[in-house]
Amino acid sequence: MDDAIIDIRGVGKHFAQRRDSRKVVLEDINLQVHAGEFVSLVGASGCGKTTLLRMIGGLVPYEPGAVRVNGELVDSVPRRIGFVFQDAALLPWRTIEENVAIGLNEYRKSFSKQEARDRVAAQVELVGLTEFASYLPRQVSGGMQQRAGLARALVGEPDVLLMDEPFGALDAFTRMRLQEELAEIVRRTSATTVFVTHDVDEAVFLSDRIAVMSIGPGTIREVVDVDLPRPRLQRQELLGNRRASELRDRVLELVIGDRTVPPAVEAAGVRP
Amino acid sequence: MKRWGLPLLSVVIFLGIWQIVGNRVDPILFATPSAVVDAFVAMIRDGQLGPAFLSAMGDLAVGYGLAAVVGIALGMVVGRSEVAERVLNPYINFFQATPLIALVPLVVIWFGVGFKARIFVVFLFALWSILINTATGVKSTPRALIDVGRVYKFTRTQSIMGIALPNAVPSIFAGLRIGLGKGLIGMVIAQMNISVTGLGGLVIDYGNAFKTAYLLAAIITASLVGVIAAAGLEVLRRVLFPWTKSEGINTW
Ligand SMILES: Nc1ncnc2c1ncn2[C@@H]1O[C@H](COP(=O)(O)OP(=O)(O)OP(=O)(O)O)[C@@H](O)[C@H]1O
Ligand SMILES: [Mg+2]
């Protein structure tokens, strides 16, 4: 299809190792993500989810294949994207508010100072951090840091939102709250989203489609359509939902069924 | 009370024992604390100690200030450019390995025996730790923060001034602290061996004259210079970079 906002065709990735050996991390990846769609990437640790996401974000080169974002070939960081990092990646020397303002850096010439301030304040409010706007990152909790990372990604109203296990490091309750907040935010924005996660329930709750990856080398094994009605705003709506548990089981089966490489070996980074 | 009580008690007991033992031995070998205090007061009264103290502070401030500026600037360059690192590494390694005190005669040949030679020694002693720590700090910018700069389209200047440099600040201050200790040594060496002036000059003169109480008073004043400079550095860090954590080590 041609209206894909993110269009990945025949993409591969290898890392050079020693002189003549190389490690193939991704092979023949094909994925199209359409305007406003929310697609999750799940798969065993080390299957290349982060690498694929960073490729879409223009943060790692790839070869062979083609990645297009908004119709343009990705050879550097595309315009108008937001990226949410696993560990929030806030600048420790800037306040929460100043960190959020970084998301406007790309557009700084098209806003007056006052407009920029208002937008940042509104975004900070949206993620519930107004009270902590002038705090330093280390003075707020992990959940709040992650909210600030999200606000930084959203404040520029990006076309494409890339998230790498944004809630992976949080406790279960905070994670659920943030999933619900994200569902609400995603409903309101039109951003096209790719979301990496280990949490299958989270993927089912948030996604339109779930791409299950397999390892050794990483490929997309199957893309599962999440045909649950929207809006989905609360995790508990899906409790006892038969279709939701079917989807969840299906995805889990695909992930767990993937035993091409023993996880222990992969975790140590040793490959034949 | 808990924090200060025990160290204070320890010092008081130490001084008491020193006083008692000192009273029983030859004052040339070992002056008592009260004799040192008397010497201290006498040296302030006759106008020796004030100027010597200021001269020590001045040499340290100028030489160390230069080392800080040059060390941070060169450290940034070495940390960011692999070419610069390869070009400068042999010299950095040479000066790291060389006992710098052996270079003092050379400094005299180049700069004579005055102020210039002294600040150059301080500079030379302090420079390397500052440079190396700055380079290390700049090089160790976490990948996630580099990614942040790229995703949000930081300009080159923004990523240096807004990410690499602030990220290096804790490491730069570690280098500044180590460099200060070395600069202090350089300053006293320069004042003892190059010009025989200031506090180093007093140490030499009173040492040669076997005036132990005066000698000790001069040494203690030199420690005071170190304490004041270290405290100043710590205040600077807290005021300018409140987001950095205090190191767990005692900087005094
Ligand atoms: N710079 C690199 N050099 C060499 N190998 C790399 C590099 N970056 C990633 N890899 C390898 O690529 C593979 C995929 O890594 P990636 O981080 O994308 O996996 P992931 O699916 O995100 O894993 P996780 O779920 O643990 O985050 C791993 O085997 C990893 O060791
Ligand atoms: Mg990952």
What report would you give on this structure?
The complex is a heterodimer of chains A (272) and B (252). In chain A, the strands form two sheets. In chain A, strands 6-7-8-3-9-10 form a six-stranded mixed sheet, with helices on both faces. Chain A has a four-stranded antiparallel sheet with strand order 2-1-4-5, covered by helices on one side. With 272 residues, chain A is α/β, with parallel strands linked by helices. In chain A, β9 and β10 form a beta hairpin. Chain A is built from eight helices and ten strands. Chain B is built from ten helices and no strands. Chain B is globular, with a radius of gyration of 22 Å. Mean pLDDT of chain B is 91; it is low at 248-252. At the A-B interface, β6 of A face α7 and α8 of B. Adenosine-5'-triphosphate binds next to β2 and α1 of chain A.
What labels would you give this structure?
heterodimer; A: 272 residues; alpha/beta; six-stranded mixed β-sheet; four-stranded antiparallel β-sheet; 10 strands; globular; B: 252 residues; mainly alpha; MetI-like fold; 10 helices; binds adenosine-5'-triphosphate; binds magnesium ion
The N- and C-terminal alpha carbons of chain B lie at a distance of 19 Å
Strand composition percent of chain B: under 5%
Number of DSSP-assigned strands of chain B: 0
Specify the number of helices of chain B: 10
Précis, in short:
Chain A has 272 residues and is α/β, with parallel strands linked by helices.
Q: How do the strands and helices of this protein lay out in sequence?
A:
The complex is a heterodimer of chains A (272) and B (252).
Chain A: E1 4-16, E2 22-34, E3 38-43, H1 49-56, E4 66-69, E5 72-73, E6 81-84, H2 96-101, H3 113-126, H4 142-154, E7 160-164, H5 172-188, E8 192-196, H6 200-206, E9 209-214, E10 219-225, H7 242-256, H8 263-267
Parallel strand pairs in A: 3-8, 3-9, 6-7, 7-8
Antiparallel strand pairs in A: 1-2, 1-4, 4-5, 9-10
Chain B: H1 2-24, H2 33-45, H3 49-80, H4 82-97, H5 104-111, H6 115-139, H7 143-151, H8 156-193, H9 198-208, H10 212-240
